[in-house]
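Dear support,

I submitted the protein below through the web form. The confirmation email said the job was done, but the results page showed an empty box. After a refresh the structure appeared. I'm attaching both so you can tell me whether what I see now is the final result or a partial one.
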Amino acid sequence: MKLLHTADWHLGKMLEGRNRIEEQRIVLEQMVNIVDKEKPDIVCIAGDIFDNGNPSAQAQKLCYSTWKRMSRMGRTLVVCIAGNHDNPVRLEACAPLAKEQGILILGTPGLRLPSGKYGEFEVNFLGEGAFTFEKNGERSVVVCLPYPSEKRLNEVLYKEEMEEEKKADSYTEKMKALFEKCNAYFKEDCANLFVSHIYTMGARGDGSERGLKLGDSYLLPASIFPDKAGYTALGHVHKPQKVPGTRGKIRYSGSILPYHRDERNMAKQCLLVEIHPGEDAKVEEIYLKNPKPIEFWECKNYEEALLKCRENKGRPCWSYLRIHTDTCLREDQLKELKSIKEDILEIIPLFEEEKKKRREFWHEEKDMRTLFEEYYEMRRGTKPDEEMRQLFEEMLEEDKEDETGEIDAERNQ
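What the results page shows now:
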């Protein structure tokens, strides 16, 4: 099986209120060209096709036209699963029309599509989210698990109130049972592919996640994933990466564009994968060109900022502009900067007095709670509320427990 793995398109997503559909169109055009060149048997889109459950007509048009072009008139299977940002029912609505093009759409866990002709492929559904197809005499098994929302699992798992720790255990156990069911579909003499949209332990995000709980899901250990799969194609994490401890068998392709300022330095890619029975998957990383990078500019004064804007006037880029100044920037100065460089997302004045306070802040010896409260007030302009203080206290306690555990482990060695 020759596979192109991509995920997290987030079509329709904005950046500070700015439309990015043209950037998305350019990147998807690159991927269509890759499909035309490499001619994979299957294109796998591992969730978060859209950025929300009610995508714009513009985003839907771009999605459907891209799917159709990637299918190459039915000569390549295109498999799409729902992510946490997608509306599963809306996503599945166009499935009857997509079938003729060789496009399979699975929105909810447990969905079983009808067997039959999908494009030029004879697809046989084995059970919930699992199907087989043949190409060049080689049989492949694909098992899809669209985003398993915690809400749906909770309706089955939690009949009464439970402690958070027990909920996490129950979620993991439930997912382990689902993965074992998925594992049973795989065959030794087939090329086996597992597709899902979920978090794993050890995955590195963009710094916005905290602790074990990310968004509406719990992190899952890689050890419970279907071990008979020759390759596991994941979506959910925007940074392309191998899941630690899996020898590259489980991977996140990452998002197609940097969607947050913290992702600005991440190289984006899609993955070309070859899977054969009894062999390790061969993976080629194909990097995508970013048509409009996100940049941070820091200028010594207003005049330097003005020059920076003029130098980059015609260059496609988004910019966060920081200007060192002793006084507030006037309204006419802000308008002048934005009239020259329309793609400035934010202009932040950096006052010398604030710089001085920061230097003093970091040089004074204070306990962690005081440091946190003063830093929070310096950044936000207000003191942290009781909920924020409590959250910080919980983090401190977690750190203490981790340190105690490490010390005990060292003593027992």
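Response: this is the final, complete result; the empty box was a page-load delay. The longest strand covers residues 138-145.
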